[in-house]
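Need residues for this backbone.
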């Protein structure tokens, strides 16, 4: 007989459950991604989080084998990072039906005005979608697929195939202009202390780039700025931060804030100067990121959510992620 139960952690600094144990569970689960690391989750909660944090540990025979990084807001229960993280999931092993059921029941019991669960960003490669459907049937909940998003990526395992992507005519042509007409410098940074001094210029450039569109920059919001600053400091020594700055004639013309985690290089937040848009500094940035990705031996450049034309032009594969909703009958 196995004994299954849950306990709610005392936040990200619970003395009985440190970052090392968090990482062990992350590696054991179906979705080992940067957005589920202790550093990323903590930074999101401390700057963008709202409502009540519910870090629910699932135990089997006294041993923590799974973690549900939840929070509750207005009666709904979500994964921590919802709205910002590209991919989300449970940590650890939730294959045992009783374990998942007790985690969901614990979360539901802690929210007096419970409305439902909404789980964003669950990859099709994860078994979580199927398991949630089965759990909903057992717990008397209605189960819905609420959204489907593509997530293109570039496979880089074969070096020559990967280098071929950097030789696309438009990329070479646009970079040639900047090198011919001035001095182009590329700076790749990985340590938080080195990145922090560049963040303000990055924020302001991003604001200017989107000012001429109907989609204003997220960096108008102070909380968004604080998230990137907090993450850069909290994850300063993890080795997976990636920040690139392109200078042309000593002027920053493009930035990129991203991650490289377990062989997967994440295209996350780029920007470029709008007055040079017709010269495509964004494509020069992409070419340099491809070179950096290949150089460090990453197997994938992950473009994340969205089917923008430039992503599909380079993608060698498109994976999918879904939003699952569970609601009382």
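Answer:
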């Amino acid at each position: 007989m196995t004994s299954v139960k849950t306990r709610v952690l005392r936040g990200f600094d619970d003395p009985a459950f440190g970052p090392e144990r968090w990482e062990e569970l992350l590696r054991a689960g179906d979705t080992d991604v940067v957005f589920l690391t202790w550093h990323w989750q903590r930074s999101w909660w401390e700057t963008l989080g709202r409502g009540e944090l519910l870090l629910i540990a699932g135990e089997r025979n006294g041993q923590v084998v799974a973690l549900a990084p939840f929070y509750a807001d207005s009666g709904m229960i979500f994964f921590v990072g919802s709205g910002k993280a590209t991919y989300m999931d449970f940590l650890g092993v939730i294959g045992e039906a009783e374990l998942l059921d007790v985690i969901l029941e614990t979360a539901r019991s802690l929210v007096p005005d419970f409305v439902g669960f909404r789980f964003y960003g669950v990859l099709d490669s994860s078994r979580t979608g199927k398991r949630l459907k089965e759990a909903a049937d057992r717990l008397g909940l209605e189960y819905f697929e609420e959204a489907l998003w593509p997530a293109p990526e570039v496979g880089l395992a074969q070096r020559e195939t990967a280098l071929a992507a950097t030789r696309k005519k438009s990329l070479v042509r646009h970079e040639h202009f900047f090198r011919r007409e001035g001095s182009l410098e590329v700076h790749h940074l990985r340590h938080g202390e080195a990145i922090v001094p560049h963040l303000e210029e990055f924020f302001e450039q991003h604001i200017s780039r989107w000012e001429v569109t109907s989609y204003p920059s997220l960096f108008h919001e102070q909380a968004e700025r604080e998230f990137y600053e907090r993450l850069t400091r909290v994850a300063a020594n993890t080795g997976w931060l990636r920040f690139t700055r392109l200078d042309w004639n000593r002027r920053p013309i493009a930035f990129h804030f991203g991650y490289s985690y377990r062989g997967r290089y994440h295209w996350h937040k780029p920007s470029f100067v709008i007055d040079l848009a017709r010269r495509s500094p964004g494509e020069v940035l992409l070419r340099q990121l491809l070179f950096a990705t290949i150089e460090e031996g990453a197997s994938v450049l992950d473009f994340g959510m969205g089917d923008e034309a430039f992503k599909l032009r380079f993608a060698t594969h498109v994976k999918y992620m879904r939003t699952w909703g569970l609601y009382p009958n």
